Structures are given as structure tokens and as C-alpha cells.
Amino acid sequence: QVHLVESGGGVVQAGGSLRVSCAASGRTFSTYCMAWFRQAPGKEREFVAAITWSDISTTYADSVKGRFTISRDYAENTVYLQMNSLKPEDTAVYYCASVSTQSSRRFQLFPSRVGSYDYWGQGTQVTVSS
Asked: More exposed terminus of the chain, fewer Cβ within 10 Å: N or C?
């Protein structure tokens, strides 16, 4: 079992920046990748970015490319999402998710699908005011 805890959400003006963090604990030695998703009111949860734990390859949704950066601290089992040039449409609850090694093939085939991820955090609210 892996436990994920997000932090760092808040309210920011459009054009501003914010960094959210996700700390993993438990059976983290089997982590293959970690990712961020977001869910706005009345909308489905959508993929934002992912990073593989070993080779640090990254994947981004088109809507955040060039504005968001995902990174990880291997020693601290923490993943970060640096969000720049924020827009009101970025307002959502941001969720951290992870994939275990056993599920790596499923992730490689469908990296942006909610069902490709094994563990989820409780989420942190990010609000961008116009």
C-alpha cells in the first residue's frame, strides 16, 4: 500500500505561480511513476502530468505544456508540480496518483487514464482568480 498526501494548494491571481507537492509513504520502493490529475466542478478528472521514477521521463497534457513542470525528489519520495502563468481554467482540485511496478505496462499503454493508476491522494484545491 502507498499513501499519498498533497499540499501547497491555495488561491492565486491569473498569471501567477504556485507549486503543489505530494509526499508518498508506505511501499514506495515499488513506485514506477507518479502523476498529477485535476478535477474541476462538474467535470471529469483529467490528466495533467506524469514522471517516471527511474529515468525521470515526463509527459504533459497539451493544456499545460510550457506552463507546468513536474519533478521529483527521489530521496524524499516527493513529486512536485510547478505551475506558472496560471489561468482561471486551471482552477480545480489537484490529485496526486502513483503507479506500481506491476502496473507499469498498463501505464505505458494508457498514461493519461485514471484507471492506469493504483493509488490516489485526497487532493488539494487550486483556485485561480481573474
From this structure: N
Residue 115 pLDDT exceeds 90? yes
Sign of the CA dihedral with 12 first, then 17, 20, and 21 last: negative
pLDDT 10s digits, 72-109: 998 999 999 999 999 999 999 999 999 999 999 999 99
94, three cell numbers: 489537484
**CA dist 40 to 82, 110, 124, Å?**
19, 22, 12
Q: Which run of H or E residues covers position 47?
A: strand 46-52
- Contact assessment for residue 115 and residue 81, using Cβ atoms and an 8 Å cutoff: no
pLDDT at 90: 98
